[in-house]
Amino acid sequence: MTDFTVPVQIVPFAGGTAWLVEDHSLPIVALAWSWAGGAALDPAGQEGATAQGAALLTEGAGPLAAVAFADALRDEAITLGFGVGRDQFEGSMRTLSDALPAAIRLANLAMTQPRFDAEAVERVRARALAAERRALETPAGLARRSYMAAAFPGHPAGRPSAGTAESLARLTVAEMRAALGRQMRRDGLLVTAAGAIKPEALARAAEQLFTGLPAGAPALPPALPGFTNFGQRVVPMVAPQSAVVFGQDGLLNTDPAWEAAQVMLRVLGGGGFASRLMQAVREQRGLAYGISAGLDLMFRRGMLLGSVATENARVAETLAVLRAEWARMAESGPTEAELADAVAYLTGALPLQFADSRRIADGLLTLRQNDRTPEWLNGRSARLAALKREDLAAVAKRLLRPEQLSVVIAGQPVGL
Amino acid sequence: MPKLTRRTALSAAALLPLAAQAQAPAAAPQAERGLFGAKTWKLANGLTVVLAESHRAPVVAHYLFYGAGGAEDPVGKSGTAHFLEHMMFKGSRNVAPGAFSLTIAREGGQDNAFTSRDVTAYYQHVEASRLPLVMRLEADRFAHPLLGAETLESERQVILEERRQRTDANPRGKFWEALEAAFWGRQHWAGRPIIGWEDEIRAITREDLVEFHARRYAPENATLVVAGAVTEAELRKLADEFYAPVAPRARLPRNRAAAPALQGMARFEMPDAAVREASLTRRLKAPGLLGPDSQHGYPLEVLAHLLGTGPGSRLNRALVQTGLATMAGAGYSGDVPSFTNFTFAATARQGVAPARLEAALDAEVSKLLADGVTEDEVKRSVRQLTAGAVLALDGIGAAPRLLGDALACGLGLDTVEFWPRHIRGVTAPQVMAAAQAVLGRNAVGITGWQVPA
Questions:
Q1: pLDDT of B24 above 50
Q2: Complex ipTM > 0.90
């Protein structure tokens, strides 16, 4: 049990609040910010519009063409990037303290005056098309893509956030600009920071960072439909090893049993060697290099998703072991010892998550995206320690549906 | 796990920004603090200890490096170093098989290991008060691993699945493996896969692992690096308690066969039905920071940046911004015990013939060799390489990886601690001398193309 707490300050600025973990031991500042939306706001047929727009923000802005903009960042060792997820649009930067004013100026320029020079647009498009094609070169990439499409047909969650080969090929600059206009607004912003910056300076920096964006908040992304239980699908691909993605519906991040579910899933399929799946699949049977399962959070709902890769001839055995472990947990939940170990890990690991400024800013941002408070963070160890075996058994019984496990296998599995 | 190089960790970095240092780069080195302020000492059994103290967060990183990697695998038994890495998690005299990682997890820690061509390393990141625990566990398997026969066969299956995942079911992985073999030969230490050829993984015996451990995991061949919230006095005490009892053993020196007497540029092409993009990888034999021609090491880092790192680089301008390639870059790291590669990589845009892209790359290299580089270009690259060195102190993983890797390869602490100064000292004539040596008319290398079948 650790008494580790994170001193989060809430810093108001014109347009919102920023969470700050202040630390002056090194002259480094990290900032992260986001709006709800992301790829979910792309109209049908314009998949990838927001992602392409985001990629072009750092390809030239204001008076600086692409190379000049990149050199202005790199000369000062500033990292600045924008990313588009299924339901979030994020920006982040890390800089030495001395270069903070330049970093803020360049980030604001990127968000308010992106150039969309023709050369950059076509270059970024070509890069995205290549990445899109390359993502399907391996069984793992193909399985992931197929899985989301099958679980959420007709909803943005089922589409690749970066776009498809078809949509990327025909996206126009007007569509990309419109996507950014929908997304980057003065309101609906979440901001976090870590490192060598005082609250007053952060408030000023945040104001400068978002000056000039249009008023109002982005539209809310469409609600997530129910998870489609699609059973078992094989996507044929010539390869000696099959990639398997498996999962089922989960629970809302507001569910009172959210943390009980996290701990139960750590026991079932969390990272590292400790989980039942890793023990059963890798340690006892040598079936795979790794297997994991856990909550994949999207649209404020955690889906139960996992993956494994095994030789084609052993897919059937691996799936049988997986289903048996899923059923065993549903029936009886974890043991007292497993509960204690999982809680010890999750509480003991907290200090490691707050040892690097970018990771702190990103971690705080994830909390904010899920409507958590600093009190929620600092009360987490005590809440986890208070969980009882029965709580975990109950949530396991409620959530885990071995018969509804939906599975995609990419490769040449035999004996299914 | 990919190997962390100085370029990835320190790029955009400088020494701690003390104004006096910046203004007087020629000041006495002994007065200057290195990047991580690392201290080092040796135990009586030969183990090197390095401390990079930092109290930024209440955590420590504990790394044990051995100066032996896949290149030290016995002939016909490629994959031995990596197999041993896996088996080191299968118990030791006082730790049951599998208990190592479970114990670390129970303490909220992260643990893993990696094998490169040159080193094998084991590490844990934990809250600072757990340092004695991880030292006790690591020292136990250092001295007395079980390498039990009853766990060997199932772990062999795990490794074969790892190989399928990384290589056999991954077109890029297959290509890079085949390219190295085509360049150096399937049985040369530089041409064998670190994970091992499949038939050789199947042939490795328990005796091979015991032998590798006995001869390569000697204290004198190991470097312990601890970074984070621990003082020198505490670490000295803990190292004496846990690591000093590990018995000294004779160290087997690295057995690096010389490069085959290759001449000129070879070609390699691998069509693959799963591949959708044609891409080029060119490797050129290059010196490292040790051994013959090591004076070219730091200039080659600057050359790789100037030619192929970032939007302002020559290759990006000539190949990517002109619409021939979706990416183009150059890479080099001299942190190796012997020779290494200077690498070019490029992916053709759809509709661009591979030959056209390659001709454009060749034209850039010819132009460089004929016309040279300007002082301004070198200054720009030096600045971008070193501007953010201090960022490597943000987090606890970079210091032990960089320091441990350098020392385990036989390099001095200064290659990491004063890397920004080494890079700042590079001049345009040095860059050109390095370019002529590696890319010039006596270049030895291979150009590989992976193309859609």
A1: no
A2: yes
Cβ–Cβ of B277/A130 closer than 8 Å?
yes
Q: Summarize the confidence of residues B259-272 as an average pLDDT.
A: 90
- This prediction's pTM: 0.94
Contact B107/A340 with Cβ under 8 angstroms? no
| One-letter amino acid for residue A116 of the chain | F
Rounded to the nearest angstrom, the minimum Cα separation between A333 and chain B is 19
Confidence of residue A2 (pLDDT cuts 50, 70, 90): low
Residue A66 near chain B (CB below 8 Å):
yes
Measure the CA dihedral A193/A197/A200/A204, to 10°.
Answer: -70
Distance in Å, alpha carbon of A15 to nearest chain B alpha carbon: 29
Nearest to B50 by CA among B396, B400, B392, B417: B400
A59-64: long-range pairs with CB below 8 Å, 24+: A59/A114, A59/A115, A59/A117, A59/A120, A59/A123, A59/A124, A60/A114, A60/A115, A60/A116, A60/A117, A60/A120, A61/A106, A61/A109, A61/A110, A61/A112, A61/A113, A61/A114, A61/A115, A62/A109, A62/A113, A62/A115, A64/A109
Does domain B34-242 fall under CATH 2.30.30.50? My reply is no
Nearest to A286 among B155, B273, B277 (CB): B155
Query: Whole-angstrom Cα distance, residue B285 to residue B259?
Result: 9
Question: What value does the mean pLDDT take over residues A299-324?
Answer: 97
In the predicted model, is pLDDT for residue B13 greater than 50? no
- CB-CB under 8 Å, A139 with B169: yes
Tell me which chain A residue has its CA closest to the CA of residue B388: A77
| pLDDT digit string, tens, across residues B350-408 | 999 999 999 999 999 999 999 999 999 999 999 999 999 999 999 999 999 999 999 99
Contact between A195 and A28 under an 8 Å Cβ cutoff? The reply is: yes
User: With an 8 Å Cβ cutoff, is A341 touching chain B?
Assistant: yes
Domains B34-242 and B265-452 fall in the same CATH topology: yes
Q: Which residues pair with B125 in a beta bridge?
A: B61, B110
- What is the third-level CATH fold of A232-411? Cytochrome Bc1 Complex; Chain A, domain 1 (3.30.830)
Cα separation of B210 and B216, whole Å? Answer: 10
> Taking the CA of residue A363 as centre, how many other CA atoms within 13 Å lie in the half-sphere pointing to its CB?
18
- Give the pLDDT of residue B42: 98
Domain ranges for chain B, please list them.
Answer: 34-242, 265-452
- Matching CATH number, B265-452, of 3.90.70.10, 3.30.830.10, 3.40.50.1000, 1.10.645.10: 3.30.830.10
Active-site residue, B234 included? no
The catalytic residue among B85, B138, B364, B417 is: B85
Q: What is the DSSP string of B68-134?
A: --GGGPPTT-TTHHHHHHHHTTS-BTTB-TTHHHHHHHHTT-EEEEEE-SS-EEEEEEEEGGGHHHH
- Judge contact between B70 and B117, C-beta under 8 A: yes
Residue B150 is inside which H or E element, if any? helix B149-163
Does the distance separating the beta carbons of A285 and B161 come in below 8 Å?
no
- From A70's Cα to the closest Cα of chain B, the distance in A is 7
Contacts 24+ apart (CB under 8 A), A43-47: A45/A167, A46/A167, A46/A171, A46/A175, A46/A179, A47/A159, A47/A160, A47/A163, A47/A164, A47/A167, A47/A168
Residues of B in Cβ contact (< 8 Å) with A309: 161, 164-165, 169
Measured between beta carbons, the chain A residues lying within 8 angstroms of B352 are none
Say if residues B388 and B25 touch (Cβ distance below 8 Å): no
CATH superfamily name and code, A9-210: Metalloenzyme, LuxS/M16 peptidase-like (3.30.830.10)
Enumerate the residues of chain B whose CB falls inside 8 A of the CB of residue A133. 276-277
pLDDT tops 60 at residue B260: yes
> Which is nearest to B406 in space by CA: B146, B36, B85, B56?
B36
